[in-house]
Automatic annotation (TrEMBL):
One of its GO terms (molecular function) is transaminase activity. Belongs to the DegT/DnrJ/EryC1 family. It holds the Pfam family DegT_DnrJ_EryC1. This is DegT/DnrJ/EryC1/StrS family aminotransferase. SUPFAM superfamilies: PLP-dependent transferases. Keywords: Aminotransferase, Pyridoxal phosphate, Transferase. Coiled coil: none annotated.
Length: 231
C-alpha cells in the first residue's frame, strides 16, 4: 500500500503535520500533500542519511500526526528510536524503503563495497552500519561542497567510471515545498555525496578502474581560497 493510502487509512488529513526527510525523493512529501496534510522536514543522521530521531522529536508539534522514515541507500533508519517517539507523542510511524536489489546480489554488493572501502583514498567511504545492503555505495567528496563534488564526478566520468549524484536538490529546496528551515546535515549531504557503482555484475577489472579513477585525483588542492581537483 502506498504512503498516501496508509496515511489516509490512519485518519491523517487536513490540519495535520507529518514529519518527513528532505534528503531523498519527492514522493513522500507528495503523498503527505495528497491527503491534505503538511510535510514538515527534519534533518538526517549524517552516517545513515535517514531521519535523525533527535531532529524528528524537535519537529513534533501539537499538530503532528505521523512520521515517515525512509531507509536510504541500503541503510536502515533508527526505527526503534522513531517508534519510541511515536509512542511518547501518539504518532503513526511509517517505514518506506528504496527498491531493493535481489537477495542473491547482496553478498556480491557487500564484497565490492568492502573492496572499495579498503582501497579508496581522498573520499570518505560509507559507514557500514548494521546490515548495510549497499543499494548505493555513497561516498563523501572533501573540499568546498557542491563545486568540488561536481568537479570530482566529472573527472571520474572522464576516466570511464559511471557515477551519479544521489540527491541533487533536497525536497525543502524545491519550489513546491520551499521551506525556511535549518537542515545542515541534509544540505551538507546533498552537496558532498556521490554514488559509485557496486553492481553485482562488475568485474575485478572494473572495480580496479573505479579505484584508480578516484585515487588518481588525489583529493582537493587548495589554490588561494578555491579548492580544485588534480587530474
Amino acid at each position: 500500500m502506498g504512503t498516501a493510502a496508509l496515511l489516509r487509512a490512519a485518519g491523517v488529513g487536513f490540519g495535520d503535520e507529518v514529519v518527513v526527510p528532505a534528503f531523498g525523493n519527492v514522493e513522500v512529501a507528495d503523498a503527505v500533500t495528497q491527503v491534505g496534510a503538511l510535510p514538515v522536514f527534519a534533518d538526517i543522521d549524517p552516517a545513515s542519511y535517514c531521519l535523525d530521531p533527535f531532529a524528528v522529536e524537535a519537529a513534533v508539534t501539537a499538530r503532528t500526526a505521523a512520521v515517515v522514515a525512509v531507509h536510504r541507500f541500503g541503510r536502515s533508519a533508527d526505527v526503534a528510536a522513531l517508534h519510541a517517539i511515536g509512542q511518547r507523542h501518539g504518532l503513526l510511524v511509517l517505514e518506506r524503503g528504496e527498491s531493493e536489489a535481489p537477495h542473491e546480489e547482496m553478498p556480491q554488493r557487500r564484497e565490492r563495497a568492502a573492496y572499495l572501502d579498503a582501497r579508496l583514498r581522498g573520499v570518505r567511504t560509507p559507514d557500514a552500519g548494521d546490515g548495510h545492503t549497499y543499494q548505493q555505495y555513497v561516498v563523501r567528496v572533501p573540499g568546498n561542497g557542491r563545486p568540488d563534488r561536481d568537479a570530482f564526478a566529472r573527472a571520474v566520468r572522464a576516466r570511464g567510471v559511471d557515477c551519479r549524484v544521489p540527491v541533487k536538490t533536497p525536497v525543502h529546496r524545491l519550489p513546491e515545498f520551499r521551506r525556511c528551515v535549518a537542515l545542515p546535515e541534509t544540505e551538507r549531504a546533498a552537496a558532498e555525496t556521490l554514488a559509485l557503482p557496486v553492481d553485482a555484475s562488475l568485474t575485478r577489472r572494473e572495480m580496479q578502474r573505479i579505484v584508480s579513477a578516484c585515487n588518481a585525483l588525489g583529493g582537493p588542492i587548495v589554490v588561494g581560497n578555491t579548492a580544485v581537483f588534480g587530474v
